[in-house]
Amino acid sequence: MLKVRVIPTLLWKQFGLVKGVGFDSWRRVGPVLPAVKVYNQREVDELILVDIVAHQSADDLDFESIDEFGQDCFVPLTVGGGITRIEQVQKLLRAGADKVCVNTATYTCPELVGEIAKRHGSQCVVASIDVRQNPSGAGWQCFSHAGTQPTGREVCTWARELEGRGAGEILITSIERDGTFQGYDLALVEAVAHAVKIPIIASGGAGNYQHMVDAVKQAGASAVAAASMFHFTEQTPAGAKAAMQAAGIAVRRSFVENVSK
Known about the structure:
By secondary structure, the protein is an alpha/beta fold. Helix content is 36%, strand content 26%. The protein has a single domain (5-259), classed as Alpha-Beta Barrel (TIM Barrel), CATH 3.20.20.70. β5 (77-80), α3 and β6 (99-102) form a beta-alpha-beta unit. It is globular.
């Protein structure tokens, strides 16, 4: 059985980190590099860094900054935001990323997932899916462009297609729950976990350790991601691991501790 991972999410906007509610990320958190250095020491299993405005510009990705962050990141780093071409993926991996997170481009160019998987392996591809619940309350619709544009895609069908194209895992985020501290959308996580065989990273809404326990034990998540919970409360990744372990969930030991032995 795979051990559950705890993954802080860093939302990068121009000159620093931000966070908000419902994908309205207006609140400044601080610069990226100090956050990376802090999480290096906090028993995280991985980090996810997403440039949330990269899709708005025709400019290429900021590979220079990624290289700077990568040099000081001693845990596996997933980088996303604005990825549209396989050449960008190669540059990100050379700059220090271990995986890439793709979202918006997959709706217009779904073959990109397969290209990445074929060249670098499925373990390199994290397919990100951002969703809102349908107005009827039944099911969820996928959104692109940082949660602003409806795609008409149903989440489970889309997740299965991404899996079939070679995605190694899926990052599933509830836009309504994002930044609310109310807990993950367990029904959403469970639906996607049952729809595919690859690992699911639950995201959007974590406010306490029990929410993470529930995402794993009740909904079948393979990993839990959080931003606001770690930015704005005294709860820590180490505390999350301790709570999950106390609930009978197998968790990973500190990555830094493992590589130092």
